[in-house]
Amino acid sequence: MSLFSDNIRTLRIKDKISQEKLAEQLGITRGRYVKYEDGTSEAPYDILKKIAHHFHISIDLLLAVDVRKIDIQDLIKLENNRLILPIQVDTIGENVIEIVTQKVKAGYLSGYADPEYIESLQQISLPFLGPGKHRGFPVEGDSMPPHEEGSIIVGRYVERLGEVQDGKTYILITKNQGMVYKRLNKNKKNALVLESDNRFYPNYEVKFSEILEIWEFECNIGRTDKKEPVTEIESLREILLELKREVSVIKEQTNSQA
């Protein structure tokens, strides 16, 4: 018996569907399906896809996770059932924020769909965040000032590529590049263009097929031992605030002399 065969049996029984009916919906014979469920034969990729779509669960979970140990209702489904994301909930039913620290970052690509890995992550709660699923990721390098290396970017999970807005910043999890924080643009037909705010680093593309997860920037849990560099926008903001203060002082002086 394999984990896969145990999983499809568990899901089939939970859905209260017979082997014959399921085989019919998969477009195969009952005899062929039975071999998958009793573990005497391995399902080819096209059948794996059909089974995953039927049960609304990802192939990686079907093959690698004991579905009897997780609540299928506590999972977020991505577009086309490509993968399923485990959610952690605190004691009062609110979503908690898992923090992917530098120490555990290396295991995220293999553990992002594993409930046990997600449960092992450090957790915090930020009540000012809005609805949605949030997770924290570490900042590396100096490509996205003013965010410093060692800070944590808290992102809101993006369910569909269509939600990505040009010019906004996101944490992107990809098969080849791993975990990066960049400004995204959709000016390519089958790819995203990733841009660094530090212009020293060139733009590059990531194909849609390589993307595992996208998290939209919500806030930064920054370090306090160093002063953040001032951007042009922040500098202009300071100038405008100073002008506003000076105008207020002039008005007060005028009123007092009147």
Could you characterize what this model shows?
Helix 2 crosses helix 3 (30-37). The N and C termini lie far apart (92 Å). Strands 4-3-5-6-11-7-8-9-10 form a nine-stranded mixed sheet. A two-stranded antiparallel ribbon has the order 1-2. The chain is an alpha+beta fold. Helices cover 33% and strands 22% of the residues. It is elongated, with a radius of gyration of 24 Å. A hairpin with an 8-residue loop joins strand 9 and strand 10 (204-207). The protein has helices spanning 3-14, 19-26, 30-37, 45-55, 59-64, 102-105, 108-111, 115-120, 232-257; strands at 75-77, 84-86, 97-99, 122-124, 134-138, 152-157, 169-174, 178-185, 191-195, 204-207, 211-221. The longest helix is centred in the last third of the chain and has 26 residues, at 232-257. 21% of the residues are buried. It has three domains: 3-69, lambda repressor-like DNA-binding domains (434 Repressor (Amino-terminal Domain), Orthogonal Bundle); 85-221, Ribbon (Umud Fragment, subunit A), CATH 2.10.109.10; 230-258. Residues 76-84 and 224-230 have low confidence and may be disordered. It contains nine helices and eleven strands.
Based on the model shown, name its key terms.
258 residues, 434 Repressor (Amino-terminal Domain), 9-stranded mixed sheet, 11 strands, single chain, 22% strand, Umud Fragment, subunit A, two-stranded antiparallel sheet, elongated, 3 domains, alpha+beta
